[in-house]
UniProtKB/TrEMBL annotation:
<keyword id="KW-0285">Flavoprotein</keyword>
<keyword id="KW-0520">NAD</keyword>
<comment type="similarity">
    <text>Belongs to the NADH dehydrogenase family.</text>
</comment>
<keyword id="KW-0560">Oxidoreductase</keyword>
<dbReference type="InterPro" id="IPR045024">
    <property type="entry name" value="NDH-2"/>
</dbReference>
<dbReference type="GO" id="GO:0003954">
    <property type="term" value="F:NADH dehydrogenase activity"/>
</dbReference>
<dbReference type="InterPro" id="IPR036188">
    <property type="entry name" value="FAD/NAD-bd_sf"/>
</dbReference>
<dbReference type="InterPro" id="IPR023753">
    <property type="entry name" value="FAD/NAD-binding_dom"/>
</dbReference>
<feature type="domain" description="FAD/NAD(P)-binding">
    <location>
        <begin position="11"/>
        <end position="343"/>
    </location>
</feature>
<dbReference type="GO" id="GO:0005739">
    <property type="term" value="C:mitochondrion"/>
</dbReference>
<dbReference type="Pfam" id="PF07992">
    <property type="entry name" value="Pyr_redox_2"/>
</dbReference>
<protein>
    <recommendedName>
        <fullName>FAD/NAD(P)-binding domain-containing protein</fullName>
    </recommendedName>
</protein>
<keyword id="KW-0274">FAD</keyword>
Length: 431
């Protein structure tokens, strides 16, 4: 029998169930560790699939993975961590329920005690305090967001089909404005192009020429992680697909059916998607540790992912990874790829060595992987080890759908969906 079973298992607390927290929770050796996961979300979101889900390519259940699974001994608590006491090694937590009517006794704060803590709470969307964005814009971070977008698109087309509706109102309803020229905004524009030109033009032939998708970028370029030639390629590809890209756009206000810009004044919309800006979650804002000073403020760690205290020394019992953290002296992108590689690194460190705080093994090193963005009509761009565009990029994006998931069940379901979509179109008429 494993000798660890007779000893007090080391308690590891994980904050967050995103790419980082989920991978870590399911990779740690439970014979060796007692693992407690605290997060308001009971599932982990496969973010690269969200745009496809919003456009009805996949069922929304394919884009999430539950934290609780059979035959696993992980303890999960549906709550938000509000404070970390690094001295006492204690988390203060608040139950996270929005719909359940809770009695006073349900909402009590409680504590979780740990030997090691892993901080992975991701980021939240920045609306730059532009009035109206919070109320009226749609976001794309969770499965519920993708479902809301899908329903909204369906409502737009139905409303535009009501008899005697004036044509300018139809055009307004079918105008999609995407704010943000990053991979999320551009990918969404690409997928909407396909949706409108393939399936919806058959379901709503009377509205075929009235849809419009535009991307408002805050700077003079799109897709900043890519080289200039690929940025230009992507812009041309979008233009070919009738996606209008507006550079250096300054949005001053948002109302229920229009945006106001410095350049063009008022522009009416049927759907406004806010796909830009990240800022720290409240927990990270409040933590008294070293944080990066340029770009978004992220928790700084050493190259073994241990949190750096205010004075720059290492806290050997605290680790941080994912979008909320960066390695001191580096500037790794906030991507699922980095989050997963860091999680795999920590899993190896924790599972292999008796005490991960004595610096065995090697420091974390990021392995560059390809970054794919789809621009619609079987076109796209790929950066990373090799750079390319066009049909090959579309193939990479397609196979990426499968690569992103570690679950066989979901891989099979995605493949079945492809075949069904190919045979009979996507399943968008149902809610
Ligand atoms: C639409 C979209 C498409 C993307 N496509 C790609 C792609 O193709 N390739 C790629 O590499 N990356 C992609 N990304 C980026 C990728 O999703 C992020 O880098 C990744 O989610 C970061 O993982 P994380 O674990 O740090 O945080 P997240 O996934 O954001 O998860 C954070 C978790 O922490 C929880 N949490 C927050 N605050 C607290 C608290 N106080 N207490 C407890 N829990 C808390 C949250 O509820 C959540 O469960 C995409 C992102 C989006 C939005």
């Amino acid at each position: 029998m494993d000798h660890h079973c007779h000893k007090h298992k080391e308690r590891i607390a994980i904050i967050g169930t995103g790419w980082a927290g989920y991978a870590l929770a399911h990779g740690l050796d439970l014979n060796k560790f007692s693992v407690t996961v605290v997060s308001p979300e009971t599932t982990s979101t496969m973010t690269p699939l969200l745009a496809s889900v919003a456009c009805g390519l996949f069922d929304f259940r394919l884009a999430q993975e539950p934290i609780r699974r059979k035959r696993r001994g992980i303890k999960y608590i549906k709550a938000c961590v509000t404070h970390i006491d690094f001295e006492e090694k204690t988390l203060s937590c608040h139950p996270a329920f929005s719909h359940l009517a809770m009695s006073e006794s349900d909402v009590h704060e409680f504590q979780v005690y740990y030997d090691k803590v892993v901080i992975a709470p991701g980021t939240r969307i920045d609306t730059f305090n532009i009035p109206g964005v919070e109320e009226y814009a749609y976001f794309l971070k969770k499965v519920a967001d993708a479902q809301a977008i899908r329903n909204r698109i369906s409502e737009m087309f139905e409303m535009a089909s009501i008899p005697n509706i004036p044509e300018d109102r139809q055009r307004q309803l079918l105008n999609v404005i995407i704010v943000g020229g990053g991979p999320t905004g551009i990918g969404m524009a690409g997928e909407l192009t396909d949706l409108f030109q393939d399936d919806y033009s058959e379901l709503y032939p009377h509205l075929r020429d009235k849809t419009r998708v535009s991307v408002h970028a805050f700077s003079h370029k799109i897709l900043s992680p890519y080289d200039t030639n690929l940025q230009e390629y992507a812009t041309q590809s979008l233009n070919r697909n009738n996606v209008w890209v507006k550079f250096d756009s300054h949005i001053t206000r948002v109302t229920a059916n229009a945006i106001e810009t410095q350049e063009e004044g008022r522009i009416g919309y049927g759907l406004l998607l806010w796909a830009t800006g990240e800022r720290p979650v409240p927990l990270v804002d409040s933590l008294d540790v070293s944080k990066s000073t340029h770009g978004m403020r992220r928790i700084l760690t050493d190259s073994r992912l241990r949190v750096l205290k205010k004075d720059g020394t290492v806290d050997v019992n605290s680790y941080a990874l994912g979008d909320a953290a960066d390695i001191d002296g580096e500037s790794l992108p906030p991507t699922a790829e980095v989050a997963l590689q860091k999680a795999d690194y920590l899993i190896h460190q924790f599972n292999t060595f008796p005490t991960p705080d004595i610096e065995p093994g090697v420091p974390f090193r990021y392995k560059q992987r390809q970054l794919v963005t789809y621009t619609g009509r079987k076109d796209g761009v790929v950066a990373g080890k090799k750079e390319y565009s066009g049909y090959g990029a579309w193939l990479s994006w397609k196979s990426g759908n499968l690569m992103w998931t570690r679950s066989w069940r979901r891989r099979i379901m995605i493949s079945v969906t492809w075949v069904l979509n190919w045979l009979g179109g996507r399943d968008i008429a149902r809610n």
